[in-house]
Amino acid sequence: MRYDRSFFDKGLERHGTACVKWDSRDMMPEGAVPLWVADMDFACADEIVEALQKRAAHPCYGYTMVTEEDTDALRGFLRRRHGLEVRREEIGMLPCVVTGLKAVVNAYTRPGDPVAILTPVYGPFTFSIESNGRKAVRVELIRDESLRYHIDFESLEKAFQSGVRLFLLCSPHNPVSRVWGKEELDHLLSLCQKYHVLVASDEIHAEFAFAPNTFVSVLSMTGPEDLALSFMSASKTFNIAGLEQAAMISRNPDVLRTLNRYLESAGVVSGNIFALEGTRAAYTYGDAWLDGLMDYLRQNAALLEDAVREHLPKALLTPVEGTYLAWVDLRAYSESCDLLERKFREHGVVLTGGSFFGPEGEGFMRVNFGCPAAQMLEGLRRMGEAVKDIEMTK
Ligand SMILES: Cc1ncc(COP(=O)(O)O)c(C=O)c1O
Hints:
This protein has 394 residues and is α/β, with parallel strands linked by helices.
């Protein structure tokens, strides 16, 4: 197979491409190993590169429109990968998933209104709510003895009873690596229905579910009357986040209409030639690359578990169910993300501190294992040196 272990082992040189992960001077000391921002250090599928090169070779880059080929490429992908049927009119396009989160907050709530989230959660969930003058209602996830996280349905219902009308779900959940199952989603959606709450589900990590876990979209459980919305993108899946193209999907035409009206008023449009071209190629021709990637990431997750045991013996690693982001509890070494991040950086490894995901993440780190195994293992080795340093100065 073309996209085998050796393809992903190779990684690629990214310095000098203005890439956030490697080229951010304030984050990355010289020679550091980046295990932070959520993109992957792998070349994307040749099929995507070829499609972009072919389009670039045509010397006119005038205004471009979203066509049925774009929506059909996504529909075909969802059918093949998830058995999910979506109609053309249920899909809208937008540049980024975070744009969608901000749009839904603005379109569905007023300043001061409460919006519920399950925490700890990807930082822009909170920022999307608070930067628009709304109030984030944080319903903390519960961790069991096996370190797996669960939804606190009782607290969520209380939040809904207190006047929440919008709920932002992260599915699969970044950073705690949970792939929400059908039963949990059933329970969630029945609560949303009972209290007439719109659920906006960020499904950007949909493809990253490791067997036996399987991703279930809110779309597979909702109908035209329901208040449910999914945001999807090829950006994480195919490592093309810099192209900036995403989709919003709802069975309910009113939801899409409301969002489209808001996006229009805010001047947000889709139509970047390369974003559309690359995304279409990814959804149409990317399956072999994606299958190879998932095999590789599964092995990385297993290697990571061993490396945590070896280098960070007091750390607690949350079981990896989904995403390529591992959630590690390092409070046995230090309760402070500031200290942990500083020490890791001094030892040449850069991670995302748990506090980025809210106060619940203090003393945790998120490790991005979407990179060649050798890079990940070197990062873990350096983390081990850093915690030894912390222990010595205690
Ligand atoms: C859960 C989640 N949503 C959204 C994003 C960003 O998506 P976009 O670049 O499309 O705004 C990320 C990136 O890490 C993410 O993890």
